[in-house]
Specification:
The structure is a homodimer.
Chain A (H helix, E strand, L loop, with lengths): L9 E8 L2 E8 L3 H12 L5 E6 L4 H12 L4 E6 L8 H13 L7 E6 L1 H13 L5 E6 L2 H5 L6 E6 L2 E8 L4 E5 L8 H17 L5 H7 L8 H19 L16 H10 L6 H18 L5 H13 L12 H9 L13 E4 L2 E3 L2 E2 L8 E4 H9 L12
Parallel strand pairs in A: 2-9, 3-4, 3-5, 5-6, 6-9
Antiparallel strand pairs in A: 1-2, 7-8, 10-13, 11-12
Helix pairs in contact in A: 3-4, 6-8, 6-10, 9-10, 9-12, 10-11, 10-13, 12-13
């Protein structure tokens, strides 16, 4: 993180999705810690269960544990931040640990980590006594700008991502930008692919601003990171306000995720989530172009933001079209529409900010040949042919 | 089941809890099967996942599988109906089997069994793709008259019952009274303890009717069983209509469950659920009497219904007060109120149909000495002393 223009960032807002609302705080600098204690005290919890990523720097984990501990007895449960461990077995283990520590309905689950830990802790909070309070303390930019803004708490099955879950809102999200200091540049870039998705899918009026802020070295000031996060909250709030179960308008948040999830699954999570979504958007853009619903310039607009972000525009080596198509077939969006043989369900754009809606719904049943062409356009070492 | 006055029973009603509503059908006789096919066809499912109790008569299971199979492809998943297997590990297994079979958002989970299978299948439906449709086909009287009328879908942890779960409503409940033909008398009696709970807690105006219908041999006609089920739906609907998350008025449904759950847990489920709840109500009645809020005649009214039902009025041998109190301490109601040292949370009655509400809430913080006295009054071979 760029330390040259170091100023404390303090941003407080309320996020509203339908009937759900929660406090969303962004902080940097030491004064943030005492603000945090004040907020935690207001929760009047009889215990905290801190679900912490095993990969966090030990001093960060201990600082948070110490901070929570001054407010209420705190149980620490560790979880590995790997997609392969985001499953019911891991959930079972952390649930048992939480229950053995004497957790009650008045306790609060605190998720300290990225998306995987946030999801495990979120599903834990959703299921314990049929729902107790949840606080997110994301330690990654992706967490701050994306995963904590979803009310979906889910784990994977061996058949696919996020197949098992439910909706559960946090009572508070606490984003400490100082947590991002030690993040590798790749992780910042990966997270910003979701910001790019929001720009392309929801708030294209911020295209120029975001294009000018993005830098391939990913060395941002806290102010700029705060701006990206704020913009993501705006975009996500806009679509989720009246659709917090993500069945209609909010489907746009899944833009790029169909091919993206398949790539993540087939690489066992080695291809970063944001990168997979970025390449997934390029594949979707190519499909839209082939179907004649998206302009060439708009396809280029996808590529430009990804390149300014220093993110890949191709899938990693070794992925094959057949395998990707097979996983897409099992994708968890299946079933929104009656399946039509020979087609696959995709979310496509007609232009930035405007989804394609055949028959009024945001799902397009894309013929398999077009799907293959879209996927092949982002395969490693495949020349990206411009279609007529 | 008494076959002397064999007539087909056909009862259709809509159950409403808050914003939730679903169809509730009771049938006996062969014409019920084709009615079932009609209803299933209306669901327009692309697949059924039949979660079936391993202990069911094989011909019953196959008949249902065949019936479903005429409507849509049907995957059968078996689950053992034991409290010790109602956990996240079993859920994980059946979820994997369901997903491998190609289940989608348009599929329907069908629960064929008693409370344990209903809960496993219910939580499966709640979590698959964050919620797909659920049909209950209870095969026990307890299922028909109690468990399917709860929207709570939960599994046990090693620390206690139903610690992990969520709310999910079925789209339909199909009660085929013919399923009850092979049930042991003890299971009928056990189920009727929940009916008794409903009479004592919610609909005391049916006390005389129920007292006259109950028989210690448990040999009932389909008409009488249908009447018991109908009465339970009435009672449960009355309290849950505006409280389907069971946090306020519907807490009365937990009457007798505090001591009852502890007895179930400590006997590893060998002491039947309904029997445990029946004895739990007697213990609670004794506590109420000691606290001076319930009359002697009302305590006797508890005992009279249980005895007419042929149900036990004592815990099984070997259970100790200390162990029961320890489990109650960890009961899943903890946390409704700030814990007060030396007291335990109970639901108590002032009279049939009238809960005790100190401070306006249906939870009473009972001092440990009174809890022990209540529990000791139902211990095996303990003379049930009348307190002054």
């Amino acid at each position: 993180m760029n330390g040259s223009s170091e100023q404390a960032v303090g941003l407080d807002r309320t996020v509203r999705f339908g009937e759900v609302q929660y406090d969303f705080h962004v902080r940097s600098g030491t004064s943030g810690r005492s603000d945090l204690r004040t907020r935690l005290t207001e929760l009047d919890a009889d215990r905290f269960v801190l679900v912490a990523d095993t990969g966090l720097p030990e001093e960060l984990m201990q600082a948070v544990e110490l901070n929570l501990g001054t407010v209420a007895p705190t149980t620490v449960v560790r979880a590995r931040a790997a997609e392969s461990e985001k499953n019911l077995t891991a959930l079972d283990r952390i649930a048992e640990q939480a229950l053995e520590s004497g957790i009650t309905r008045r306790s609060v689950v605190v998720a300290l980590g990225g998306g995987v830990v946030g999801n495990l802790a979120g599903l834990l909070a959703a299921l314990l006594f049929r729902g107790i309070r949840l606080v997110h303390m994301p330690t990654t930019l992706l967490g701050m700008s994306d995963s904590v803004l979803s009310l979906k708490q889910a784990v994977n099955s061996s058949c696919g991502k996020n197949h098992l879950g439910t909706f559960h809102a946090p009572v508070m999200v606490w984003n400490d930008l100082d947590f991002l200091r030690t993040l590798p540049a790749d992780e910042i870039r990966s997270a910003l692919c979701e910001t790019i998705k929001n720009v392309l899918g929801i708030v294209p009026e911020h295209y120029d601003e975001v294009a000018s802020l993005l830098r391939t070295d990913a060395d941002y000031t806290p102010e700029v990171l705060g701006r990206f996060i704020d913009l993501c909250v705006d975009a996500k709030s806009a679509v989720m306000r009246s659709d917090h179960q993500e069945k209609g308008e909010a489907l746009i948040l899944e833009y790029g995720h169909t091919t993206g999830h398949a790539a993540e699954l087939l690489t066992g999570g080695r291809f970063r989530h944001g990168y997979a979504i970025g390449v997934g958007m390029l594949a979707a853009a190519r499909m839209s172009r082939r179907l004649g619903v998206l302009d060439l310039s708009d396809e280029h607009a996808h590529r430009e933001l990804l390149e300014r972000n220093g993110a890949p525009t191709q899938l990693p080596p070794g992925l094959l079209t057949d395998a990707l198509v097979e996983v897409v077939r099992r994708d968890n969006k299946r079933g929104y529409l009656p399946g039509t043989p020979g087609t696959l369900d995709y979310i496509l754009l007609e232009a930035p900010g405007r989804a394609h809606r055949p028959g009024g719904r945001m799902i397009t049943q894309v013929d398999e040949e077009t799907v293959r062409a879209g996927i092949e356009s982002v395969l490693h070492d495949q020349r990206s042919l411009v279609v007529a």
